[in-house]
Protein 1
Amino acid sequence: MEDTVRWSLVTAIAPIAWGTNYFVTHEYLPAGHPLYGAVFRALPAGLLLLALTRRLPHGAWWWRSLLLGVCNMGAFFALIYVASQLLPVSLASTIMSAAPFTLALFAWGLLGERPTALVLAGATAGIAGVVLLLGTGSVAVDRRGVAASVAALVMSSGGYVLAKKWGRADAGPVATTAWQLVAGGLILIPFAIAAEGAPPRLDGPAIAGFAYVGLVATALAFTAWFTGLRKLPAATVGLIGLLNPVTGVLLGVLWSGDVLTGRQLLGLALVLLGIACSQPRFTVRGDAPLSGLSVRSGEDGRYASADGRGRAPAGRHGPPGVDRRRVRGRAGS
């Protein structure tokens, strides 16, 4: 359980950083340049991580980095940029809050991580909480923005689960994040030149804004996100991602002096409840002792012992002397 809490806290770095990204993008970054905005966000961050790791893709990771770079970085960043321009932040965030469901469905199909009823209930509570936190208002809805948000949601969910599947035996989350960022940024350059012409001129605040977005909301955030996908079930990671709109609302309270209403406080409580429901836990049936007990991990089939040393059992079906009908360990989703 301590490991679960630790990796959940690491994963939470990503949505919290993304939540601050709304404010920085709105206040400091140039409007009308979604493709260049995505390039400036992805490529410098990827090159920085690549310089730190000093590792290039190998084997199948060349084409995997290209595919994941499009789904998780390049096209995703551009679609989010478009959606943020065409839709109110509340509506765009509400659409993206469906990520726990889409991640759970992709993980079920590609990884065999079947979501439990508790996780699905947590996802429902979390999405309801986001709706209460943000509301959708009565403004006109641009269908192009909705299409961009839905496309970003589906594309990134599939990409994240593929990254989790392929990332079980690779060079590590920092290296694979670097490869995806560089690939996604390079792919967008010709499209940005064709569609937007010359790059926008950046003043001091814009340069500082892109530096923050690239270093914190991209390099650090995605490294933490992909680390969480390695260590936790995809549905759990998706629900932790609901901290993104929560951060945006709380930033408004701290920065702009907004006051949380009763409805928003209820929404915040529902989001936190949903995240709590998603935490994987091990269950023990009967009176079997926990000391030295080995259970099978729900992430990749490896064994972990209760004493933390990760020793594999001697037998095929578990450690000697333990009745599998009485002791079962599994992740929460």
Protein 2
Amino acid sequence: MMKKRLSVLALLMFAMVLFLAACGGSEEAGGETDGGNGDSGSEGGDKYKVGILAPEVTHGWVAAVAYHAENRAEELSDEIEYQVQTSADAGEMTSQLDDLLTWGAEAIVAFPQWEGMEVPIQRALDEGVEVVNFDIAIDTEGVYRVAGDNEDMGVQGANYIVDKIGTEGNVVIMENPSAGSVSELRTKGFEETMAEIAPDMNLMTYATEFTRQAGLSDFADILTANDQIDAVFSLDDETSVGVLQAIEEAGRSDIKVVTGGGGMQEYFQMMPENEDIWIQSALYSPAMVADAVDVALQVLKGEEVPEETIIPTTVVDRENYEEFLDENSPY
């Protein structure tokens, strides 16, 4: 009887050992996840590690960059593990870049808004990390770049205005000297195209800023100084919102076209509401950062990618604005 009890006890202990071993093996196979962005994609079954660096802004075009970058990274989460870091200045972005290197980032998508990022980005390149620069050009060899076409935005603005009002009229150019090459290229594309397709157009240039407050105050003064304005070449959607407010407050009905630039949801919503004015935006969309994330993945996969990817301009107005609405976008 004693032998029988010992035999039963031994069988029970053996079964328990097998059960515990099975549990332990299952837990080990599961591994750890990083905010739901687990592992599986590059060699050995692991996901590629992609870091995203963006400025920390609570609203506007810049804020939407981080939004669209994270959206695209999430869509690619079966192939990449990612971290999104936002910073207030070059020093903080440098520190975050170091954190991404420690994390093991294989590629970094960077949108540096400040000077002084060349050295830390070069350090990342020296460590074998691929770097895809969004929008702002960095003077560092080996960096891939994804950006919009500022000069073509001006070209499209000129074509749009001529299409709506003809080859003669008074057109106000709202340039922004503080925006540097952005303003210079958009204005260059506009003026050169106008000289070619509508040489008799009267162009009047005024300085402003890329804010609705500046658009409102500056264009109110412009309206006072000019009895007849047929169209406005505004380089930025925020400026254009202010321009439209100034037109409404002045009760003016002579302006038939207001262009813009960027891709602002609030501005899109205004397009069908203003039947007497053609409201246009030449997209320099923050959503282009999704292409930068795609480039990072392509490079890590060993695919051939051009060093510079320039996204063609898309024109948005009341006829197609619905295609570009995104109720979750911060811009």
